[in-house]
Structure formats: structure tokens, C-alpha cells
């Protein structure tokens, strides 16, 4: 199996690196599965206190793997496959939220669509000042349904009302101002190192209990709404407008509604 997520251990830090630059670290089924494996390994290894989720290439994560989604649209049961992919994403976001270890997103590049959901699920998010963010789902005929479960608790209501529908790009300073990320910095590595050093002084019990206090309300809302939003995602992804939107994106042309 091609390695799409690298695992490295540095003292109390477990580093999971998205390493699929050929498709901008898109959330293919294989990458999501390997992320789960990395999170399992991090929690199992003695002495790990914090997980750092980073990336290779200029994009942290481009969101759903549209080539995979487009291919499954012509399968014998596209609705079933869309539902399975939606469930994979829901499970991944919840896994990060419920992990007993703090998770830091280390972003030094671009974040789009589902990648924004990953950032929202992390306890701390650090981004370089050249990073850009965008919720582009509406331009493809879909919506940020599942990832709203991790984004709406982070972003201000006004910011969500704007960026969910415009698809505009915004930078790291704006992302920090609206609550999407914790800090915008000129040196992602140094900032993350300071944070992991501080977290590394905590006990496993103390860290797990402290994190749980910050995620309890998010998880309560997540569990209340996840099934409905997972189904919404699956339904949208097999719609006519979504098929046209994804095909237009892959063919680098404007969709027919434009």
C-alpha cells in the first residue's frame, strides 16, 4: 500500500504528516484510513503526549478527493459509495475530537473544503502567514455539511455566514481573527515546538481530562447532528449539480450554472 500518511515519533510528540502531494493531500479513502491508523498508533505508544498533524507540499489538505468521488458516480451504486465516504469523514472528525491526546494542526500552505474540517477538529491550529483558506463546496454544487460540525463551534457566526457561501480565499491573519486557527505565525515549526514543549509537561490523565472539557459541548452537538449531515453530504454528492460541478472542476471549466 502506498504510504500517504507518515508517522514519526519525537519524544512526547507523535507527528502525522499528510504525504500525498500529487493530489494536494486530498481525503481519499486510503488517506483517511491511514490517518486513523496513525491516531491509533499515537494513543498506543507509551510516552506520547501530543499529536502534530502536518503536511508535505504547498497544500495542507484540498478536501475530498474529487477524482475518487467522480469515478464512483458512474459505479453501479453511487449513492452507497457516497454514503460510505461521508461516513468515513464523519468518523475521522469525531476521532480527532475524542482522542485523549491534544492534536495540533501545523499548516504551512493552503487549506480547502474538507481540509478546513480537519483544522476545526484539532485542538490547536497553527498556520504560516502565507497560508490560505477557503470553503469552496457551494461552487461545486455541494455544501460544507459534515465539516460544519467542527467549523461552526470555532468560527464567528458572521464569518461562517460569509465564507460558507462565497467561497472566498482568506489568509492566516483573518483565520485567527475569526477563530478558525489559534495563531498565525512567521515560523510554524518554532511555534509548534513551543506548544508541544508546554503540552509535554502534562500528565496523560491531566491532558485527557483537560481536553475533554473543551470538546464536550462540541461532541454533544456533533452526535446530535452527525447522522443528518452525513446523509445530506451523501445526497448532495450524487446530485446532478454536484456531478456537473466536480466534472467542471476536473476539466478546468466553468460549470453550466455559470
What distinguishing features does this structure have?
alpha/beta, 4-stranded mixed beta sheet, 2-enoyl-CoA Hydratase, Chain A, domain 1, 6-stranded mixed beta sheet
What does this structure look like?
This protein is α/β, with parallel strands linked by helices and 258 residues long. The chain has one domain: Alpha-Beta Complex (2-enoyl-CoA Hydratase, Chain A, domain 1), CATH 3.90.226.10. Helix content is 50%, strand content 16%. It has a 6-stranded mixed beta sheet with strand order 1-2-3-5-7-10, sandwiched between helices. Strands 4-6-8-9 form a 4-stranded mixed beta sheet. It is globular and about 55 Å long.
**Total strand count, please?**
10
Shape: globular
- What is the CATH topology classification name? 2-enoyl-CoA Hydratase, Chain A, domain 1
Number of domains: 1
* CATH superfamily membership: 2-enoyl-CoA Hydratase, Chain A, domain 1
Beta-strand portion reads: 15-25%
What strand line-up does the widest sheet have? 1-2-3-5-7-10
- Contiguous helical run count: 10
What would the average pLDDT be, to the nearest integer? 95
Which structural category do the helix and sheet elements fall into?
Answer: alpha/beta
